[in-house]
Amino acid sequence: MRGNAVIEKTPDRRVQRTRRLLHKALMSCILEKKYESITVQEILDRADVGRSTFYMHFRDKDELLVSGFGELQSLLKSAQAATATPPGKSYERVIGFSLAMFEHASEYQRVNRALLGSNAEAIVRRQIHSVLAGLVGKEVEIEFRRHKRVSSAVSPELLTHFLLSTYISVMSWWLKAKNPVPAKQIDAAYRHLVLPCLASIFEDPQTGKSL
Predict the structure, then answer these.
(1) Where are the domains of the chain?
(2) How do residues 154-181 score in pLDDT, each as one tens digit?
(3) pLDDT tens for residues 2-25?
(4) Which of 38, 40, 110, 186 is 20 to 30 Å from 144 by CA-CA measure?
(5) In the predicted model, is pLDDT for residue 193 greater than 80?
(6) Spatial CA neighbour of 25 closest among 43, 50, 48, 49
């Protein structure tokens, strides 16, 4: 049984290694030339991977680009789960992902800047929105249930849309800035923008305590 377990895990590690090599090769190509002009063959040559192997995993370079968001989703989910909130302000966990996301974007700042204005920008935006929608939407629903806000001028769907749209807009502005501030600073700015909105929904305006 033990031997079988090892045999079963080996292909998974091999697949993960191949995917990482291909993704790393794509990232390095993005830093050197426009995304639109990067060919699959260039990625293969840099990763030292065969064409048939590539197409076993991905349809094209767009799908390869999107594959990198799996790790990001796990990172943000962990960050949100670990968020410590002040007493009576559990709703702050809704945006618990924000600093981790900004730090991730800062780590890959050169790649992100290179993608701005390319065909890949829309792909990246959609994926970020998709990843965050799952995390934020779930936490928003939890807060509405916790506070029994069955009727409100703002629905869970609208609140989720607002938080995500604002976040992506702030991130885009930050990445395009000539001299971007540190991740912690732009995260503080985002929180300054949206926390009053969350407080207005989930706190009693007279007492300042959670409803």
Answers:
(1) 2-60, 68-202
(2) 999 999 999 999 999 999 999 999 899 9
(3) 444 444 444 588 888 999 999 999
(4) 186
(5) yes
(6) 43
Task: Give the pair of three-digit tokens for residue 180.
Answer: 């971007």
Q: 31: helix, coil or strand? A: coil
Question: Which of these, 115, 86, 100, lies nearest to 26 by C-alpha position?
Answer: 115
Contacts of 204 (CB under 8 A, 6+ apart): 210, 211
Q: Range with the lowest mean pLDDT among 68-82, 98-112, 124-138?
A: 68-82
Q: Are 65 and 124 a contacting pair, CB within 8 Å?
A: yes
For residue 201, what are its two tokens?
């929904």
Second CATH level (architecture) for the domain 68-202: Orthogonal Bundle (1.10)
Contact in structure between 166 and 193 (CB atoms under 8 Å): yes
Q: Is the domain defined by 2-60 classed in CATH 1.20.1070?
A: no
The DSSP symbol for 143 reads H
Q: Please, what sign has the CA dihedral across residues 123, 129, 133, 134?
A: positive
Give the pLDDT score at 1: 42
